Amino acid sequence: MSADARDHRVGMTIPVVGSILSEKRADFLKSITHERFEIAVHGYKHDDFSALDIGRLKEDISKAKETFEGYGFRPIGYRSPYLRPKDDLARLLSECGFAYSSSKTAISNRSGTSNRVILEKSDKIASEIYGPPVSDMKSISANPENGVLEIPVSLPDDEILIDRMGIDDQSKLESILTDIIGTSLRFNSFVVIQIHPERYSIFRNAMLSTADRIMREEEVHFITLGELSRGFRSPGPSSPASGKGKSVCITGDLDIMSLRDLLR
């Protein structure tokens, strides 16, 4: 993923669970991190935040931040495990110095898409997994809560398409990805796609082909979540906040790096 991000100029953000880090793993992640490939925080443990009380949630966030900083990272972004944030998440993230969160989900209008039936079916699956999506991405992105910018993930993601719906044909995945990006950018200035590292090899050709074509045909930039966050905070003439720039962020959560991590 890191090499593709650099070679194809496609920004990628990988939220990582803090408890799986070690000196060796941290060194590896640092070795593949560059301006097109960003590491964010995905909790200390991969627990359902919506089921945690505030005390445990604060402890998890603080421990995750300390762990990443202890290994030399300076992450500014956060994503809740399972994309299930708690109402107080923004306040707690602000207290820990995070600039953005990508912990909510969003679904765009499906009218006019070539894969409308598939996407409407995926929307039902998404609401069962992640709960109700964000209805107005623009108002959330334009009004940071407690100083923390919320950058919702557009659905469906790779888990829904590949694992739940059994779609692995590259041309079909590319067509669906084009629909997701196209409908999202029709109503908003950015879209966040989720492709987990463990499914990246299945999604890779479709994603890179889509990205290459869109960048050739339209004024769309594939950037990291960190870049998007900074663009909203310090808007330029072509930034997403100006209403003129269009951005796509590819993300993918890293929950485990070996089978031992399942026992943590």
Unreliable spans are none
Helix count from the secondary structure assignment: 10
Count of domains: 1
Main sheet specs: 5 strands, parallel
Provide the CATH architecture. Alpha-Beta Barrel
Question: Helix amount, in percent?
Answer: 40-55%
* Rg on CA atoms, Å: 17 Å
Could you walk me through the main structural features you see in this protein, from its secondary elements to its overall organization?
It is a single chain. The chain is an alpha/beta fold and 264 residues long. It has a single domain (2-254), classed as TIM Barrel, CATH 3.20.20.370. Helix content is 43%, strand content 13%. The chain has helices at residues 2-7, 23-32, 54-70, 89-95, 116-130, 137-142, 158-164, 170-187, 200-217, 225-233; strands spanning 12-16, 37-41, 77-78, 100-101, 105-106, 149-150, 153-154, 190-194, 220-222, 246-251. The strands form 3 sheets. Strands 1, 2, 8, 9 and 10 form a 5-stranded parallel beta sheet that branches. α4 (89-95) links the parallel β3 (77-78) and β4. α8 (170-187) packs across α9 (200-217).
Brief descriptors of the model:
globular; TIM Barrel; three-stranded parallel β-sheet; 264 residues; alpha/beta
